Amino acid sequence: MPALRFERPHKVVSHHEAADHVELTVQPRSSCGLVGQHGAGKTTTLSMAVDLLRPDHGRAANSFSTGRSLPAPAQPR
Known about the structure:
Elements: E1 4-13, E2 16-20, E3 23-26, H1 42-49, E4 57-62
């Protein structure tokens, strides 16, 4: 089982595509780095990996999840 798996997650933050269909699998006991320009979505991608953010589409999964559920995203008024 992979330690991290990104299956084309997509996240929009403040009308900006912060993570756009990333595909990545990281095996246990391996390392991986995200490199990109300012605003490229590195922090958003890692936040989805550790269950701090929920992708709008696609899936970001990890093998060390706490299993806690996140609140539903706030709806615009």
